[in-house]
Design brief:
This protein is 25% helix and 25% strand. By secondary structure, the protein is an alpha+beta fold. Keywords: Metal-binding.
């Protein structure tokens, strides 16, 4: 509601910020706009495979608002109605171009929300979420409004139950963006008015619900013990579906995975990544054999262009094995470097996000006229537990990089930094490095003999095969040392194969040959 001067005034539900208030129909009718954050919890970002640098938003219709105890229809002919338990902020005082430090002070109340979405129609929204997120009853709120000045925004707990079972449980300590930042960011572009609602994102655990399911979302203040109580929503089957004069429901496997949260939950067979297949046992097998043996096994499968070539290893014969992360540089252009080269750019983001067992592979087009890595970023990668760094460009501070414990494969040294030849452009996309293609999740094996890229789907069977091949090569080499002729032994004929299998059955002891 507004006064004679056009300024929004508090509703009855907002009039007493010192105590909890119910989310009733009068409150819901007073809401001015509903804004929602796409990704804001670290667990959800990791599940989605991308961590945003800044928050992004969409809007929901106020007609989607509903109180606790209401029902939500799953339209006829659809199947992917998903819940998202969230903390909702209710603006208490007008906010326009406020600072992140001041943002929280403009929040009047906190409550529980369920950001329901219908993935069957999401494709037609082209990112707007208009129909997929704004169905009637798709934004339940409540049941109680907690006064913002009585809770700690950094110690709120969000829990979601489906049919009594806890499926989401997180605290605001894992938020990527604090509430004050979200309020401030939105206030740069629009005026936030008393009664506006901001849904602040969901943690991992969101999934699909079906008719008959009951979803309960609850927000608690850990310090004070205040609670919104459970926000209950029952899913019912709707009789009406989508008419032929609009976009019909449509589902892909990718939609199913997004709706259920994981490929396993969606019943979709996903392509394996290096993280899935590079077990301790497989890692040990690949480390036990020569790089040349692995190369031969790949060639037998028709993979003749999986070697990263022309690079020098700082750690010589020390073998590395890990899962590929990728970083791409594009040729330097002054305007692009100004926009994307400075500050916390793609290069720093990539090296700041490495995890143990990962290998950062850089595409630098073989350019030796400017460095792609220096001692500080190499040390940061080492501290984070990265397995290695591979670049088909140059490095600077080469002596310091060589002294570090992190293996680096490079294309020479150069004292200049990015701005001379490169713009750091993108992270975790398919790249070209040293003459071959590398995708995020590929398995990389390398030493001074060469660097190989192994498709994840082949890793397990390849590991078994190369161990056997290495054993055969050891058998042959030992007999060559003893003076046996190559003919018939390399490759082994029928007689030598019989001797080899007898040796294996006896324990494969080289000392016994």
């Amino acid at each position: 509601m507004t006064n004679d001067h056009g300024n929004h005034t508090a509703t009855a539900a907002q009039a007493n910020p010192s105590g909890e208030r119910p989310v009733d129909q009068a409150f819901l009718d007073s809401v001015g706009k509903v804004l929602a954050v796409h990704l804001s919890y670290r667990s959800r970002a990791e599940q989605r495979g991308r961590t945003p640098k800044f928050p992004s938003y969409f809007m929901k219709a106020t007609s989607s608002l509903a109180p606790s105890g209401s029902a939500v229809e799953r339209p006829a002919g659809t199947e992917l109605l998903a819940f998202e338990g969230e903390i909702a902020l209710v603006i208490g005082t007008r906010a326009r171009r406020v600072s992140p430090e001041a943002g929280w002070s403009h929040v009047g109340w906190v409550t529980a929300s369920n950001d329901l979405g219908l993935y069957d129609i999401k494709y037609a929204d082209k990112g707007s979420n208009v129909r997929s997120k704004s169905g009637d009853g798709f934004t339940p709120l409540g049941p109680a409004l907690l006064p913002a000045d009585a809770v700690d925004p950094q110690r709120l707990r969000i829990r979601t139950r489906v049919n009594g079972e806890v499926v989401q449980d997180a605290t605001t300590e894992e938020l990527l963006f604090e509430f004050g930042q979200i309020v401030a960011d939105l206030s740069q572009q629009m005026t936030l008015l008393p009664g506006d609602v901001i849904l602040t994102g969901t943690p991992a655990g969101s999934s699909v619900v079906v008719p008959g399911d009951v979803v309960e979302v609850q927000v608690d203040d850990i310090a004070s013990g205040r609670t919104t109580g459970p926000l209950a929503t029952t899913v019912v089957q709707g009789e009406a579906g989508f008419a032929a004069f609009g976009n019909p429901p449509r589902i892909t496997d990718a939609d199913r995975v997004d709706a259920y949260g994981t490929a396993e939950g969606a019943g979709v067979e996903s392509e394996p990544t290096g993280r899935d297949v590079l077990t301790d046992e497989v890692r040990a097998k690949l480390l036990s054999v020569a790089t040349a043996t692995i190369s031969g096994a790949l060639r037998k499968r028709g993979l003749n262009n999986v070697a990263i070539e022309g690079l020098t290893a700082t750690k010589g014969t020390r073998k590395v094995i890990g899962v590929a992360r990728t970083l791409r540089y594009v040729p330097h252009r002054e305007d692009l470097f100004k926009a994307r080269g400075g500050g916390y750019n793609a290069q720093k983001q990539a090296m700041d996000s490495l995890k143990p067992g990962e290998i950062l592979v850089m595409e630098a087009r073989g350019e030796q006229g400017s460095a792609t890595l220096g001692d500080i970023l190499a040390m940061r990668s080492q501290v984070l537990g990265a397995e290695a760094i591979i670049t088909d460009g140059a490095v600077r501070d080469l002596s310091a990089v060589e002294d570090a414990d992190l293996p680096v494969f490079h294309h020479g040294a150069h004292p200049a930094v990015l701005g001379r030849k490169h713009v750091p452009w993108s992270v975790d996309e398919t790249i070209a490095c040293g003459g071959t293609t590398v995708q995020p999740g590929d398995v990389i094996v390398g030493d001074s003999d060469g660097i190989l890229v192994i498709p994840p789907a082949l890793v397990a069977e390849l590991a078994d095969e190369v161990v056997e091949q290495e054993r055969r090569d050891s058998f042959v080499l030992e007999h060559v040392k003893q003076g046996h002729a190559i003919d018939g032994l390399f490759p082994m004929n029928k007689d030598w194969l019989a001797k080899y299998h007898a040796w294996v059955d006896a324990g494969a002891d080289l000392g016994a040959l």
